[in-house]
Amino acid sequence: MRIAVLGSGSRGNAVVFESGGSAIMVDAGFGLRALASRLAAARIRPESIELLLLTHDHLDHVRGARRASARWGWPTVGTRGTLEAVGLDGEVGSLRAGAPIQTGELLVRCFRVPHDAAEPVAVLVESRRSGIRAGLVYDLGETTAALAHRFFGLDVLLLEANHDTTMLWAGWYPAAVKRRIAGRMGHLSNDQAAQFAARVAHRGLQRVVLCHLSQNNNTPRRAWVAVNETLKRTAFRGSVCLAQQDAIAVVQVGSRSAANQLELAI
């Protein structure tokens, strides 16, 4: 499986999963021109995308969805709440949490998460050919035992590490915004990300990719240290890396024993 994070942060998110000639995109939070540029940098033809899945309705995840779907003919799916909030209900297919979606070699399942959006989900992608499993967990205020159970046994985990708690509460954001971010319907802190990563860690987990870092309330170093130091106390023997807003990170898992990463300029 090849996973290309085309960018992750408050200004746009999009991730492409490829396996056995099949490709899906999760979220399209960049404008059409930016999406085309980032796909080209990741060496992905837009026409190869077989499905666009939207995790939730916030602009940094759906900004280019309608135009990209029309331009490249991408079938688009999301929960009913997401599609209604984006204004795509009646035009595309809705999905139910937990129900599988198959496109070529890829099998996709979605699970509800707590976030201040209409009906947000985390995403589990599995290659039917190789058995490689990747999970995408971002834009949620807390994790649960049920979510950890569903995401155990992954080969790759893409996980939100949005903010450092100390930086958030000491920062310049209004108190109401701070409470929203730190609340149950907000975003995962570095410590919360570390705790979830530890709950799903096992010897076969090859790569943890930290996503959706705040530009104002976090630093790559703080996020990496929080998660990496916690994972050292588990069976995890892989590596921790970071997705960036303005760069592309590509993780390739060729077998259930090796993962490589490449960063590409845009």
Radius of gyration (CA) equals: 17 Å
Helix content: 25-40%
The biggest beta sheet reads:
8 strands, mixed
Number of E-type strands: 15
Find the CATH topology: Metallo-beta-lactamase, Chain A
- At the first level of CATH, the class is Alpha Beta
Q: What is the CATH architecture assignment?
A: 4-Layer Sandwich
CATH superfamily: Ribonuclease Z/Hydroxyacylglutathione hydrolase-like
Low-confidence stretches: none
Strand order of the largest sheet: 6-5-4-3-2-1-14-15
The total number of structural domains is: 1
End-to-end CA span:
22 Å
- Please tell me the overall pLDDT: 93
Could you list some keywords that capture this structure?
Metallo-beta-lactamase, Chain A, alpha/beta, 266 residues, 8-stranded mixed β-sheet, 7-stranded mixed β-sheet, 15 strands, 27% helix, 9 helices
